[in-house]
Design goal:
Shape: globular
Distance between the termini: 61 Å
Number of strands: 7
Structural class: alpha/beta
Helix content: 40-55%
Length: about 700
């Protein structure tokens, strides 16, 4: 028995791509004419039909198109431009351009000229453009129809000489009309855009060569160089300026190699050049990237990595090798914060990887993938290497490097340098402040993280204010001893402010008010431990740059967060606490208690007078006050340098007391229990405490239908 042959697969291509139109034989002429008379009159099809030049078929196709009454305006313009003898199409265009047929200036020639200007500008009659009849018609034409007909021309980046001359003549003829119509504004903008493109064409052509020359002196890092070149293109607005900019590109690599100044008078270009200089000599970085980049050229089975993926693979291998060689003989492996924040070599290596992820030889994964996908790629890479434990040090380090890279890229892209004020509250923190191996040397680590970030923008500045609220001021004294050297962009201030009635909140709120009063425009706070890396603060700053955003939470619980919770996520009690906060304060935030937040100075000044809570629940009081001040609360996912250990508890906290404080905050911020239900809060009150409510199993009611008798 012979098996039935499968039916051939039929592929239906768009009509404009039909071989019947692109390869016209004699026997296909009738079909082409039939298509002209009956097919969908879309511009793409009409354009292909009009490309038939063989006579007499071309005439027959043109007549068939001209006989149609269903051609849209764009198709009518195509027909009139290519076949000025198409009387019906030209007449229809004239009627649309001049609804008042009795008005002076109504003209078939003008209709044909507008169509030609959009699609065949070389065929426009220059003598007609300079005549009084053209000026009358241009003034009388319907501006909306005129704009629709000229859309292909107005959307172009460059013009031919006839197109530019025709558009200038049209705009000059319409200049006496008031108010200016949208077509006039669009035409002026198109001429400006085309002029700038022409002026900058030679400069744009030099881009790749210039960036390659600069990359030779910046260890392959190219993001700052690209931003400088963008500023150069924007500044070159005249032929003389373009010539000056082109001369700068020719000397840029040699000037950078010598550490010299380009001598540019344009402020934006000069500022961006300082960023290029800052990327010139990464002296503090260990070596090894080039070797890792070369080793990551292909996969284990010989296939080639995409260059954006290759950067991630190189970073993975570089950090994994550091862990293998540094901690191989250690009986007790370090935690992520010890490996990538406390240890100077590990910290510098993480920053090396982050620098190259921002843009290495123009290849960066950041522009192509969001952080959720990048984190999934890292875990997939670990799984392929049979190394799929999420707590492994090099995995945590690479994901933290991805976040740091995006943070630094965001700060680099800012046109205005950041002016930061950062509060760090302290109480009995001497152990964290003393040097290793007995302590964490946390202040040194934080200054190094923040300094690496600010180096992206040499004009950026930060005030780091440490506030000790304990009665013995021991932490303040330890911090004073921990300050090793001055940083050119960071000023460290230590304040001893004993406060019996505060539990972190008082220190933070006082510090934020002090820094706002000192003129800082972006305020933030974080804890002294190294869970939250300050090199990720650029994520907060980028989010704060969005309109209406008053505060940004560095969340440990977003899908693009990493490192804080076990794979199964937060505990039931933690989730229930979060739901209760949302119930009471209507804060739609995944991590309201996170100790890594940033604020705009305007939002903070409006909110601080409304905040009274100075204990551990002060975060939610501050967030609610910002919402009351009509600012929005945003969140960014962060990579915490934290190792979750089953059964291990952090700083003891009375979450029931905190939740009672949140309830008092809600009443103060406008909660009316009679008007708005709070089911999660009610459930916790009925249970007696948060832990009991979280342990309750939901009751299931089964409805059994009655048996008919």
């Amino acid at each position: 028995m012979t098996a039935a042959r499968p039916s051939p697969v039929r592929v239906f291509a768009p009509l404009a791509e039909s071989p019947l139109l692109n390869r016209l034989d004699a026997e296909d002429a009738d079909l082409a004419v039939l298509l002209a008379a009956t097919s969908n009159p879309e511009p793409a099809t009409v354009r292909v039909l009009l490309s038939i030049t063989a006579m007499p078929v071309a005439d027959r196709v043109a007549r068939a198109l001209d006989d149609r009454t269903d051609l849209p305006l764009t198709s009518l313009a195509l027909l009139a431009a290519h076949r000025p003898d198409a009387k019906r199409a030209t007449g229809t265009l004239r009627g649309r351009l001049f609804p008042d047929a009795a008005a002076p200036g109504t003209c078939h020639t003008f209709a044909r000229t507008v169509a030609a200007l959009a699609h065949q500008p070389a065929s426009v009659d220059d003598a007609y453009l300079s005549g009084e009849r053209f000026r009358e018609s241009a003034a009388a034409a319907d501006p909306a129809v005129l704009g629709e007909l000229l859309a292909p021309l107005l959307d172009a980046d460059t013009f031919s000489d006839p197109a530019e001359a025709g558009l200038i003549a049209l705009l000059d003829a319409r200049a006496s009309r008031a108010p200016t119509a949208q077509v006039d504004l669009a035409g002026t903008a198109a001429l400006t855009r085309a002029r700038r493109h022409r002026v900058r064409a030679g400069l744009i052509a030099r881009r790749e060569q210039t960036i390659r020359g600069l990359a030779h002196h910046t260890a392959g890092l190219t993001l700052a160089a690209n931003l400088w070149f963008d500023a150069l293109i924007t500044a070159a607005d005249t032929p003389a300026q373009a010539s000056q900019a082109l001369a700068m590109t020719e000397d840029a690599a040699d000037t950078l190699a010598s550490g010299g100044d380009l001598g540019c008078a344009w402020p934006a270009v000069r500022s961006r050049w300082q960023q290029v200089i800052a990327a010139r000599t990464p002296n503090s970085h260990p070596s090894g990237w080039e070797q890792a980049w070369q080793a990551a050229e292909t996969t284990d089975d010989g296939a080639r990595w995409d260059d954006t993926q290759r950067a991630l693979v190189a970073g993975y291998e570089l950090l994994a090798e550091h862990v293998r060689t540094t901690w191989r003989r250690s009986d007790v492996p370090p935690t992520p914060d010890q490996c990538w924040a406390v240890d100077p070599t590990g910290r510098a290596l993480l920053h090396l990887v982050a620098d190259h992820l921002t843009g290495y030889q123009t290849h960066s994964p950041l522009a192509h993938y969001d952080d959720r996908l990048l984190i999934a790629f890292v875990h997939g890479l670990a799984k392929n290497r049979r190394d799929d434990r999420s707590t492994d040090l090099h995995i945590a380090g690479l994901i933290a490097a991805i976040k740091a890279a995006r943070s630094k890229a965001a700060l680099l892209a800012r046109t205005v340098p950041a002016d930061l004020g950062l509060v760090v509250p302290m109480r009995a923190e001497t152990q964290r402040l003393i040097p290793v191996p007995n302590g964490d040397d946390a202040l040194t680590a934080k200054v190094a993280q923040l300094g690496w970030l600010l180096a992206a923008h040499p004009d950026a500045r930060a005030d780091l204010l440490l506030v000790d609220e304990s009665t013995d001021s021991a932490s303040a004294r330890a911090a004073a001893h921990a300050i090793q050297t001055d940083h050119p962009q960071i000023r460290v201030t230590i304040a001893a402010r004993p406060d019996h009635g505060s539990a972190k909140g008082g220190a933070v709120l006082w510090g934020l008010a002090e820094l706002a009063g000192a003129g800082r425009t972006i305020l933030a706070y974080t804890d002294l431990d190294l869970t939250y890396p300050l090199d990720q603060l650029g994520l907060h700053i980028a989010a704060l740059d969005q309109p209406t955003v008053g505060t940004v939470i560095g969340s440990r619980r977003r899908p693009d967060s990493h490192g804080y919770y076990p794979p199964a996520g937060p505990t039931p009690a933690t989730l229930l606490y979060q739901r209760a906060v949302r119930d009471l304060l209507q804060l739609d935030a995944t991590d309201p208690q996170a100790g890594f937040k940033a604020f705009s100075v305007a939002a903070l000044r409006a909110a601080l007078p409304l905040v009274t809570d100075q204990c551990l629940a002060f975060d939610t009081d501050l967030l609610a006050a910002i919402r009351r001040s009509e600012y929005t609360v945003a969140e960014v996912g962060i990579a915490a340098l934290h190792q979750y250990i089953e059964g291990q508890r952090g700083t003891p906290r009375d979450y029931d007391a905190m939740l009672n404080a949140v309830h008092r905050q809600a009443l103060r911020h406008g909660l009316d229990p009679d008007l708005r239900r709070t089911p999660t809060w009610d459930r916790i009150r009925r249970a007696g405490c948060l832990a009991v409510a979280a342990a309750e199993r939901p009751t299931t009611t089964v409805l059994v239908p009655s048996t008919p008798r």
